[in-house]
Amino acid sequence: MKLGTHQAIQPGPPDGSCEQRGPLGPSQQNGAVPGERGKQDKSVKRGNWGNQIEFVLTSVGYAVGLGNVWRFPYLCYRNGGGAFMFPYFIMLVFCGIPLFFMELSFGQFASQGCLGVWRVSPMFKGVGYGMMVVSTYIGIYYNVVICIAFYYFFVSMTRVLPWTYCSNPWNTPDCAGVLDGNISSRAALNLTHLLNTTQKRTSPSEEYWRRYVLQLSDDIGNLGEVRLPLLGCLGVSWVVVFLCLIKGVKSSGKVVYFTATFPYVVLTILFVRGITLEGAVTGIMYYLTPQWDKILNAKVWGDAASQIFYSLGCAWGGLITMASYNKFHNNCYRDSIIISITNCATSVYAGFVIFSILGFMANHLGVDVSKVADHGPGLAFVAYPEALTLLPISPLWSILFFFMLILLGLGTQFCLLETLVTAIVDEVGNEWIIRRKTFVTLGVAVAGFLLGVPLTTQAGIYWLLLMDNYAASFSLVIISCIMCVAIMYIYGHRNYFKDIEMMLGFPPPIFFQICWRFISPAIIFFILIFTVIQYRPISYNEYVYPTWAISIGFLMALSSVICIPIYAIYKVCRSEGDTLLERLKNATKASKDWGPALAEHRSGRYAPAFSPSTESHLEVQPLQPEKGQSEAAAASPMQGSNGSAHSQDSRL
């Protein structure tokens, strides 16, 4: 994934002698400054990705999750089909990619997790704690969704899928299976009449989901018993996540070669199978046919902005964490564009896979596609599995589909867990905890498993959807908005642009500078206003959540946001100064140990003599003899991995 690098003509040695310069070394090929060619550009203390492909694949796996499959296609057809693509890609360009680039560059420059990076402005460290709280909530319920996918994956290993017919003990008289030959005797109605009357058809897949897998209770407060099969699968999913992260990015970086790429193989297999079915074209046309009149609807633009924002994983802390393991001179500008576009292209591609099968199912039932279309768990565990029963060798397609869901979920879960572990280890920061990072990972995994147990009860799906709708909704928007303001206006956009130029060898393009300062914060604010205006109390099918449950949802949302003002007040009170204004200035001023983590990269305004407290946060690498000329080399042009040379002291 590395781009070609052109070697710039360098000035000769100061003594006028000739020096034969060989080809670029590995660190220079990764965007290193030519004058620093002897440096390792690696953090021995924290570790780095084995190569940049590992980082790109991990970030793709993090961004491409279950929402790409079960949310985007539904949003697209509901908001004008192909016409929805226009606001979707507008929001990608003006909000998605700029925010993605900001978070990657932020983490890579400081080589710190979501807490350590706030040395840039210590008063806003509460933003990092908010990110940790959000990642904790998402990590708890996300693995429960993965465990349900594991369960369906295991039960698909049979000759006949258990949700194919209505002849099972858990089925009701209203069950109407599309392949069941005993429908009329069960429901006293033929299938066609049943579908055309006000009586709602209950499919065998829906009854299997509600009455057998979940054994759904009648209220969120009625937890009932723990569903042991789901509990076992939850244990399996946490063990898999822990084993893949047992050595941090060193082990997960190898696993993503499979987990991030194989879902595309499965998507392609399902797509090829889907488009060969009768009615597939109808489903795809339903998905893509533009309804241009909806472009003028503010809700369409709000849905597009929200989908881009949540799909890319902004403000979760994962992007900052993953980028912190990059080499200092890695071209994260290139990576942000590649990953963002891959994420959105996957969403569009998944829509073809979903609607080709749903079109086939609608054609088989003789109904409109809208009657069978669904989103969220209803699509993944009810509508799509039912459609798969209509295919020959249905267990094979079911195994492939749920294996794909497992891999998509694991890619995101890896980063959520690593975000928490990295934040804890970086915050403590001593050698003892760094050597025992595996035990920290184990502790977080065990805690996540125990906190996920209530979600495997008979009321678990109610709690899962409550967390999904409130714990990671408007709080993410607020966190992201404050992060933009803190970096661009408190730390200062000129300082940040110089930091990026120091790291990449070129300043951020003018377009990104404008987006970061004005456009992206405005879009984030628009998403927040849209979320508030469009708010509706949560419900699940016909079940309406009680007021006390919604109150718990709001408390979960506030628990991450409240970290920001609480820590800000704490920091101001602890800062030096006789007046409140002096304390505010000291609390927002970048700390002395802010900057590149490796001593060899701290040049320019980061080069003053170290104090003992500063040295404790920096890692000094053994330098080669020619490093004595590094000061002279610092004045030479910097070369980024795009091959362009810039002066380190250039002004924007």
Automatic annotation (TrEMBL):
Disulfide bonds join C166-C175. The keyword Metal-binding applies. Signal peptide: none annotated. Na(+) binds at G61, A63, V64, N68, S311, N343, L408. It is a multi-pass membrane protein. InterPro entries: Na/ntran_symport (IPR000175), Na/ntran_symport_glycine_GLY1 (IPR003028), SNS_sf (IPR037272). Residues 1-45, 607-652 are annotated as: Disordered. It is found in: Cell membrane. PROSITE patterns: NA_NEUROTRAN_SYMP_1, NA_NEUROTRAN_SYMP_2, NA_NEUROTRAN_SYMP_3. Keywords: Amino-acid transport, Cell membrane, Disulfide bond, Membrane, Metal-binding, Neurotransmitter transport, Sodium, Symport, Transmembrane, Transmembrane helix, Transport. Belongs to the sodium:neurotransmitter symporter (SNF) (TC 2.A.22) family. SLC6A9 subfamily. This is Transporter. The gene is SLC6A9. Pfam families: SNF. The keyword Aminoacyl-tRNA synthetase does not apply. One of its GO terms (molecular function) is metal ion binding. GO terms for biological process: amino acid import across plasma membrane; neurotransmitter transport. GO terms for cellular component: plasma membrane. The chain crosses the membrane at residues 85-106, 127-154, 261-288, 308-325, 337-362, 396-417, 438-464, 470-491, 511-533, 545-570.
